[in-house]
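Justification of computing resources. Each target in the renewal requires a structure prediction run like the one illustrated here; the chain below, 485 residues long, is used simply to show the kind of job we budget for.
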Amino acid sequence: MTSEQVEEQDPPRDHVPGQRGADAASAESEGYQRGLGGRQIQMIAIGGAIGTGLFLGAGKAITKAGPSLILAYVVAGAVIYFIMRALGELLMYRPVSGSFSEYAREFLGPYFGFVTGWTYWLFWVVTGITEVTAAATYVNYWWDIKPWISALVFTIALYCINLISVKLFGELEFWFSMVKVTAIIGMILIGLGVVTIGFSDAGDTASFSNLWSHGGFFPKGIGGTLMTLQIVMFAFLAVELVGVTAGEATNPKKALPRAIKTVPWRIALFYIGSLIVILSVVPWTAFAPSTSPFVAAFTKIGLPAGAGIVNFVVLTAALSSCNSGMYSTGRMLRDLALNGQGPKIFTRLSRTGLPLLGTTFSAALMLVGVWINYQWPTKAFDYVVSFATISGMWAWIMILCSQLRYRAKADRGELPQSEFKAPGAPWTSAFALGFIGLVIVLMGFDKEARVSLYVAPIWAVLLTVAYFVLKARTPNVFKSGTPTS
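Resulting structure tokens:
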């Protein structure tokens, strides 16, 4: 790589408290090209809320809670909406690529910005490893290809796409999301036809009464419903990714609020709507924890191609998640570097405005992780993977806490008011924080989810040590208060 291929962007360091807002939006892109249009932002927002957690993970949750899982998604969906509205308020105050890491740095202090940035970076690296590994196994449904070959091809292909242009990334995400959306809408329409008209092999038993006629709506009690909350929240991880696109949206003031406003109907249709239909077509007692509820529903209806369709959709969901990981890790590393909290080399952008070195470094780690997973599939790797849930919720906590601090300062006149205020805040944000706290406590009662609570403190100690070492070397970079970028 020559000096002509990359050029270093020196971050501005003359921030004055209270003078950030709409006028600074273009400067805050800090060399990025605003190549993501409203259509792509919308689909990235939709796709971020639909992943393998719904297509595969819902089967396990159904066996734990029965039809009451629908209620769990209703409540959790409301919390996700509160989180996204809090993020939207911050984004309209200052739309930056660093997103919640930048907001944590500004409103909670440099330590929290440091921890949030590196945690969210590792979250996407780990997620990318697991998703590209899963994608390789999905390919074996059709072809007998060694998983490491598929994983290598997928990783290199997505890496190259992310290096061409942000517009191409957005276009790929658009079509990945379109596949997922089309599959769910198709399943809902077919399921409604089975329930109302009675055609197919499931016509005789399909009925909305299946939602309450097999042990009631709460067959496992309220406790069973509560214990599914961590599974439900895991399904929503990455919904906040739309915030990372702020620095590269062509019209963030218009596109981002529009995408966030659609969160309620997205959750209502894709999660609640699909579950109502699936549990009406197939009684909850017929599901198995390891089987996708979509596969079970297609099989019951009598569509032999159903398993193949769902496998294709889950493959695109996995590739979509890995693609998002490639995108976000490079931006998060650059944000950390711009603020002196990461290696300065990651501040460099390509001529097309892409964080080349940060993306390359993250993609290389994904490849190493895939190789390790194939060679030594030990419990240690499972512990690292479990970190994804708790780290994703950490990002949500930082969004809510930053929004509460920002709203308090804005109400006192210390900062400009956002053009997209979160309705009901600060009470809705406080409720969302309490709910996340409840989910973390419940994770301690689940032996499978509990491992996340073991891994998180280790990572926190490592980051804390790294923070104070860096602070001792460059104390000016870690001053409290306003961001350095």
